[in-house]
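## Example record

The block below lists the input lines for one assembly entry, exactly as stored, with component labels intact.
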Amino acid sequence: MIKILLFAHLQEAVGKGEIQLEIGQTTVEQLKAELQQKYRIAGLEHVMIAINEEYALDNSIINPGDTVAFIPPVSGG
Amino acid sequence: MSDALFEIVDVPVRIEQLIKKVERRKAGAITTFIGTVREWTKGRRTIFLEYQAYIPMAIKMLAAIGEEVETKWPETRIAITHRIGRLEISEIAVGIAVSSPHRKAAYEANEYAIERIKQIVPIWKKEHWDDGETWIGDQLENVPYSSGFPSVEEVES
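Predicted structure tokens for the full assembly:
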């Protein structure tokens, strides 16, 4: 199982801040594609991914048990 | 607010407390940056702002900025507090204090820190305008996503 965290407009688009996905090992790119399809959310190519609170790349490996955060362009400050 | 140098809080940011965190006998200067909620942005009126953070990672990234600062300006000490939740006009969204033996490093490090916050710290701002609401979605904080999502043109402009 993978825990997915959503923020800002993504959270509003999907209607919740957290999703549990019953999938095995995957990559950032594959997970993005899966979410894009499942929840019909656009613009994920501009969203950064953090695996267990560290920024990751498109080809980074995601393992069951990981927490994956979808991080839209940030606007703090 | 606690004694931690890097904090995300949901209560008002107290600048005196931030200054205390970086005070040292060898400091000859302390600079503070106070980011406040602006009422007017390009002719559009803000009623209030709402900030959201991925809190544990945001704290980590603030600490990472602190490490960058202390590497670039070795004699400095920095503390950063960012507030989340609903903020009214003129309230403090972020406070940064930097101490150093001489003022130049304190000024430079402080400006560097706010620029980095806007680039890497997972915090988002939602503008509640008098005619709608928008999650602000670019790192320069001036291109809101018109549809709620960035178009290619919006991101690349």
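Residues 145-157 of chain B have pLDDT under 50 and may be disordered. Chain B touches chain A through 35 residues (CB under 8 Å).
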